[in-house]
Specification:
Helix 1 packs across helix 11 and helix 8 crosses helix 11. The protein folds into two domains: 212 residues, Endonuclease III, domain 1 (Orthogonal Bundle), CATH 1.10.340; 119 residues, Alpha-Beta Complex (Nucleoside Triphosphate Pyrophosphohydrolase), CATH 3.90.79.10. The longest helix is centred in the first third of the chain and has 16 residues. It has 346 residues and is of the alpha+beta class. Its EC number is 3.2.2.31. It is an enzyme of class 3 (hydrolase). Belongs to the Nth/MutY family. Pfam families: HHH (PF00633), HhH-GPD (PF00730), NUDIX_4 (PF14815).
Length: 346
């Protein structure tokens, strides 16, 4: 069986009509690939369209304020992607005169770009024979060839990259890369793949050995960390409030939030009173408060779960300069905060 030919033939009949497939301009390919990292197409597509509209060229993206980029990215998660995207746009404009590098070796040097993204851009935009290996490709190759090497190990990464490089169509690298990724996304899906109608069925080891659900193999992730967030929604008599920028590294860097107190466990109202009496920010305030949500709101991230309470703090005057509730919409905030804002009425 000619693996590459079958996958390409399937793609020609089944590919989705997506805007980044109508161009070979590296800026648009790069933009789509960064947005689609750890994001499904149906979720990423509106963001891609919004970014293209707001920043039609790399110069437009480079000239924008980071806050505007983060605001447009709001809700997509993994915000380091947006920060790196903006940084790299400025680098391309300032250091490379706005000209995108045209080889894998040069593209992978850019901030926020790894092997997969560099391979995708190099092959799709410039026709370089550089095999892509993403989650879809891992799944297709591991099942078809019956490979049980864990995909999140150094050995697995090298093994699958070598196999993809061996299989790529030398004359049509862009077509093959897009075909195998689409095949994994649409045909050889994680759950309930269309094996009965699969053009690779006769040569698929996983299908023959009934191991579809067992492949690919991935080592267990690190234990998920639990964190307990207490947001202080401070409101004065004019309904103004306070937000602050998360400047420390980690989740949501450079996004905005209400003042935060992190505790070792979920706290009760009586425990909050004690905490307030000892907290440098609150102990000098004369305030009344109530709890917005008695049950913790659980916000799940890849490696940590946030158990969150929103404490509504009413004061006569704010301890520092605040903003009107209507102004909050102009600031990029985490999805957790945005969800609260959609429910709470100032």
């Amino acid at each position: 069986m000619n693996f590459s030919k079958n996958v390409i033939n399937w793609y020609s009949d089944n590919k989705r009509d997506l805007p980044w497939r109508h161009t070979i301009k590296p800026y648009y390919i790069w933009l789509s690939e960064i947005i689609l990292q750890q994001t499904q197409v149906k979720q990423g597509l509106p963001y891609y369209e919004s970014f293209v509209k707001a920043f039609p060229t790399v110069f437009d993206l480079a000239e924008s304020e980071e806050q505007n980029v983060l605001k447009l990215w709001q809700g997509l998660g993994y915000y380091s992607r947006a920060r790196n995207l903006h940084y790299t746009a400025k680098y391309i404009v300032k250091e490379l005169d706005g000209i995108f590098p045209n080889t894998y070796k040069e593209i992978i040097k850019l901030k926020g770009i790894g092997d997969y993204t560099a391979s995708a851009i190099a092959s799709i935009a410039f026709g370089e024979v550089a095999a892509v290996v993403d989650g879809n490709v891992y799944r297709v190759l591991s099942r078809f060839y019956g490979i049980d090497t864990p995909i999140n190990t150094t050995k697995g990464i090298k093994e699958f990259k070598a196999l993809a490089t061996e299989l790529i169509d030398q004359k049509q690298p862009a077509l093959f890369n897009q075909a195998i990724m689409e095949f994994g996304a649409q045909q050889c899906k994680p759950k309930n793949p269309y094996c009965i109608l699969c053009p690779l069925q006769s040569g698929c080891v996983a299908f023959q050995k009934n191991k579809i659900s067992e492949l690919p193999v991935k080592l267990k992730k690190l234990k998920v960390k639990k964190r307990y967030f207490n947001y202080l929604v401070i409101i004065d008599s004019d309904r103004n409030t306070i937000i602050e920028k998360r400047i420390q590294k980690g989740i949501w860097q450079n996004l905005y939030q209400f003042p935060l107190i992190e505790t070792e466990k979920s706290i009760t109202i009586s425990e909050f009173k004690l905490l307030a009496s000892e907290n440098e920010f609150l102990k000098h305030l004369n305030f009344e408060f109530n709890l917005f949500n008695e049950t913790d709101i659980v916000h799940k991230l890849s490696h940590q779960h946030l158990y969150t309470k929103f404490w509504i703090i009413e004061v006569n005057s704010l301890p520092r300069k605040g903003i009107s509730p209507n102004s909050i919409k102009d600031y990029p905030v985490p999805a957790l905060i945005n969800e609260f804002l959609s429910k709470f009425k100032f």
